[in-house]
Amino acid sequence: PMPAEGTLIGGIYRVVGRLGEGAMGVILLANDEQLERPVAIKLLRPEQMDNASMQHRLLDEARAMARVHHPNVVEIYAFGEHLECDPCAQLQSAHMSAPYFVMEYVDGTSLDTYVRGRGGPPLPMDEALNLLDQMCLGVSAIHGAGIAHRDLKPSNILVGPGRRVV
User: Fold this and answer.
1) Using an 8 Å Cβ cutoff, are 99 and 79 in contact?
2) Of the candidates 46, 39, 43, 110, which has an alpha carbon nearest to the alpha carbon of residue 75?
3) Which residue among 57, 101, 141, 157 has its CA within the 20 to 30 Å range from the CA of 26?
4) Rounded to two decimals, what is the model's pTM?
5) What percent of the chain stands above pLDDT 90?
6) d(CA 127, CA 148)
7) Catalytic residue among 50, 60, 86, 151, which?
8) CA nearest 62: which of 38, 49, 81, 48?
C-alpha cells in the first residue's frame, strides 16, 4: 500500500496527500518538516517495489535529473528508501521497501488541464509561444545534461505560478 496521509517518510517528509501517478510511480505531496516547505515525492508503484530493474530506473532518473539546474526543470532534492512495516507479518523483519526521490513541489496544474481551463485548444498565439518557449528551454537543459526525457507529454508538463512551465 502507498503511505497514508500523515506518514513520515525518511524521518523528514510528512505525507499530505496524493498528487498523481504514472506507469512507474506515484507522486505524493509532503511537507519537509526540517526546511518547512512543501515537496513532491515520487515512489515506485506498489506492484513495482520488488522489481530490481524498476528500482534502478528510479535511481537513474533521480541521478540524471539532479544534474540539471534550470528554472524550467523540476529540482531534485534527495533520494531515499521508505520502509513500510507490515503489521500483519509474523516476522518482525517483514517490511516493504520503496525507493523514492524528493523534488520541488510546483503548485500548478498539468499543461493539458491548464489549456482546457483557458478555453483551449487553441490558446492565444502569444501565450502558446511563451509556454512552448519555456518547454523548449527545459528540454534543452535536460538534453544538455546528456539525458533524453522519453515521456514528454502534456500531462507531464506543469504550469505553475506566473505561468512558469516545468
Assistant:
1) yes
2) 39
3) 141
4) 0.86
5) 63
6) 26
7) 151
8) 81
**Phi and psi at residue 150, to the nearest 5°:** 70, 0
Q: Is there a catalytic annotation at residue 126? A: no
- Check pLDDT > 60 for residue 102: yes
Cell of 47: 506492484
**Position of cell 506492484?**
47
Side chain identity, residue 119: G
pLDDT digits (tens, 9 = 90+) for 28-41: 999 999 999 999 99
Q: Distance between CA atoms of 105 and 24, rounded to whole angstroms?
A: 19
Give me the residue label for grid cell 502569444. Answer: 126
pLDDT digits (tens, 9 = 90+) for 117-128: 999 899 999 999
Identity of the amino acid at 72: N
The pair phi, psi for residue 75, each rounded to 5°, is: -80, 140
**pLDDT tens for residues 39-94?**
999 998 877 777 788 888 888 888 989 999 999 999 999 999 887 654 444 444 44
Please report where in the chains the cell 517495489 appears, as a residue: 49
